Structure formats: structure tokens, C-alpha cells
Amino acid sequence: MNIESIKDCYGCGVCATVCPRDIIGISLNVLGFYEPVILDSSQCIDCGLCCEVCSYLHDELSLQKVEIQSCAAWSKEKAVRQKCSSGGVSFEVGRILINKGYKVCGVRYNTEINRAEHYIASTVEELIPSIGSKYIQSYTVDGFKAIDRKQKYLVTGTPCQIDSFRRYIRKFKKEENFILMDFFCHGVPSMLMWKKYIKEVKKTIGKITYLSWRNKVINCHDMKTMIIDNEKIDWHDSYNLLVKGEKGYYNSRLSQGDVFYRLFLSDTCLGKACYEKCKFKYDRSSADIRIGDLWGRMYKHNEDGVSAAVAFTQRGWELLHECNLEIVEHSFDVVAEGQMKEMPICDELYKRMKILLQRDDLDINQIYRQLLIALKYRKVMNRLKHPVRTMKNILKKIGK
Ligand SMILES: Cc1cc2nc3c(=O)[nH]c(=O)nc-3n(C[C@H](O)[C@H](O)[C@H](O)COP(=O)(O)OP(=O)(O)OC[C@H]3O[C@@H](n4cnc5c(N)ncnc54)[C@H](O)[C@@H]3O)c2cc1C
Ligand code: SF4
Ligand code: SF4
């Protein structure tokens, strides 16, 4: 028995990591999501390891007994907080563990092939590319395979990647060597969408040399508005892509209509598993620590960024308190305010998007335009479903 028949799974790559014959590859499927392929089934020895570690094949989480402890947290170092997506918890946890002799398996953006990928950092300097969320699915296999289970590691990833990874280290009785960290996860968008987006950006700025999804300052030439300044962006407005290329810079924010963020956050192009098989929303995790953006009312006036930090193990909780972090303990519902509690709804728009993304003749802006009316209609219908909330938002805007 092996994972041969599995389709539309989490694409976590742990099956490929564990396979003793090295016959499982992970590649993008037609919809732009990672999926396993058996490269040579005649070499399969039927050991069943790939199925054993696969989170997709199990209904229960790999971490069963949890005691949730939660807090708001942010780095005591201003520069770290400015670079990271929210409060910089991820970097501070990585930094302290590296100083204790651990390595970190985190995610960087590879500008050569325009993908996010797991890699190993052994020094604090090597940890820097892992700073900041890359809002696309990461390719895990090279990073996971480079892990020596006898050594100590922090491994970060989406909750589904982490759930499979815990099964993997448990199988080899090595859990004590690892600290696992995931995040509240909205889902991952199709790489078809990302490739179309980046193709348009490259037309303006040439080959990409640097990319940040959550840029908190505008310190460069904004190609859209042609403005050069050093404006600090309120953290709440930091869905702000900064792309540097050989011919210039590109800056684009959700609040100004960025097409990537509009499509990603409209839930029209996420992985099938994110709609149908995600068992990791809200307080469900197999990590020691879960991080996220603390968007709730408690910190709504904070402009620098606050992380939500949740520990599911005592080890995780103690580690958070050792880091270079300001910590304010809160109940879980305060820390997780605004996070998704259920899977997103897979509606007609998703089906249309699937077809549009596969068309080579359409660019990202043409696709967005084709969906625009339907997206607006959906927004209006949602508002009508929640009249009180809508009124409150309108009054808030008038007040501002
Ligand atoms: C696809 C995706 C969806 C997310 N959805 C939500 C959400 O719904 N709600 C929420 O509050 N937060 C979400 N986050 C997390 C959020 O963006 C911040 O990472 C979080 O607030 C922690 O911020 P930080 O400043 O501590 O760390 P950051 O500086 O953001 O560090 C990011 C950490 O995540 C890892 N990482 C980055 N990109 C990826 C990736 N593509 N796959 C796996 N690991 C990655 C890095 O290795 C690093 O350890 C999401 C992140 C991603 C990548
Ligand atoms: S969910 Fe992960 S372990 Fe399971 S088949 Fe897919 S890639 Fe392999
Ligand atoms: S939403 Fe769920 S299934 Fe999708 S990437 Fe995140 S954890 Fe995995």
C-alpha cells in the first residue's frame, strides 16, 4: 500500500521524505498545487511508511492531548518587528533555538524559480530569508530531506505540513529533538495564479531579485504611483507586496486593489484540501507553538504589529517565555479573534476560477476582470446577510 491513488492532498511532501526507496516525487498538478507521484512503482517495497506519516489519510490530529496557553507577543527589537509579518515571534523563536544549538527548517522565497521552499538555517544570518510570510504553498522536500533526525531542529510550516511532520518524527521516536511551529492558516492559493501574477510584474521590473509580501514601509520608487518616499505603513495595511527586480521596484497593496491579494483572500483559488479536508482551523493544531496576526479589538490601535502566540505543549509555552519577546497573556478567544473557525466555502466562483487559471491566453488582470462582477455581487449578498455588522462598519467609516 502506498500513496499512489491520493489526489488533491496537502502536498506536504512528508511521504517523499520518509520513503526509504526514494521513489516519491512532489510536483505541481494541473491546478497548481503540490501532489505526490510515484516515480517507479516497481521499486515500492510495500512498507506503508508513506501512508503512516500522511496527515491527509488520518482524521485525528497527530497531537492529541493539548493544554492551550496563549498570549500576544512581539519582538523587543524594533528592526525585527518591522521586518516580520506581525510581531516577529517566528524569528525570535528561531534565534534563541539557534543559539542553543538547534537548526531551523523554515521557508524562503527562491527568486530564480519563483517558488517558496523549505531550507535549513544553521546561523542567525541564514535565518533571515525565513522572515515574512510567503503566501503560496511551499515546496518542502529538499528542506525536509536535509534534516538529520539525530540533531535538534525547529520546523515551521502550514498546519497540515506540521501534522504530517509530527507523525514522521514520532515514527522514528525523535519527537524530543524537535520543536514544531505552525500558524493560523487561511489556505494556500494556486501556483497558477501566482505565476500569472509574477509574469505581469516581471514585464515592468525584469527578473526578480527580492520579494516581500508584508512590507511595512514604502522606502522605494512605487512603480504604480510613481512616488518616492519613506512612509511607514500601519501594520493593519501591511498586505503590501514589495518586489525588487533588475529594472526597478514594484509595490502593490491590498487596500489599493492588489490583484494577488484580492484573489487570494476572496477564497476563489485555494487548494481543494483547504476547502474540503482542513482539520486545522482555530484551536486545532499539532504544533508546539502556533503564531498568527493578532487582529482583534485588543490591539486595534497598534501600528507596529502584534503576533498571536498559542502554545499547545508546555515545552512551547516555556520556550516563548525565554525568547526576546514582550509577552502579554490573554485568553485564547482574545488572541484568536478574527481567525477562521471553519473551512472556506467552495462556491461557483471557485469552479470558474479553476477553468480560467488553466487558460494560457488569459493574464491575471483579465481573469480578475472576468470575476469582478461576481465578486462584487457576492460581497453585497454577504453584507445583506449581516445587516447589523454592515451598519456598524458604515458608521465606523463615516466616523473616520
Ligand atoms: C499561506 C499562509 C496563510 C496564513 N494565514 C494566516 C491567517 O489566516 N491568519 C493569521 O493570523 N496568520 C496567517 N498566516 C501567518 C501570518 O502571515 C504571519 O506569519 C504570522 O502573523 C506570524 O508572523 P511573524 O511576524 O511571527 O512571523 P513571520 O516573519 O511572518 O515568519 C513566518 C514564518 O512562517 C514560515 N513561512 C513563511 N511562509 C510560509 C509558507 N508559505 N509555508 C510554510 N511556512 C511559511 C517561515 O518559515 C517563518 O517561520 C499565514 C501565513 C501563510 C504563509
Ligand atoms: S498529504 Fe503529504 S504525506 Fe500525504 S500524500 Fe500528500 S504529500 Fe504525501
Ligand atoms: S488551510 Fe488547511 S489544508 Fe490548506 S494549507 Fe492551510 S492547513 Fe493546509
UniProtKB/TrEMBL annotation:
Xref: SUPFAM superfamilies: 4Fe-4S ferredoxins
Domain of life from the UniProt record: Bacteria
PROSITE patterns in the record: 4FE4S_FER_1, 4FE4S_FER_2
Keywords: Iron, Iron-sulfur, Metal-binding
GO molecular function ontology, one term from the record: metal ion binding
UniProt cross-references to InterPro entries, sorted A to Z: 4Fe4S_Fe-S-bd, 4Fe4S_Fe_S_CS, FrhB_FdhB_C, Polyferredoxin-like_ET
Source species of the chain: Phocaeicola vulgatus (Bacteroides vulgatus)
Signal peptide range: none
Domain 4Fe-4S ferredoxin-type: 1-29, 34-66
Annotated protein name in UniProt: 4Fe-4S ferredoxin
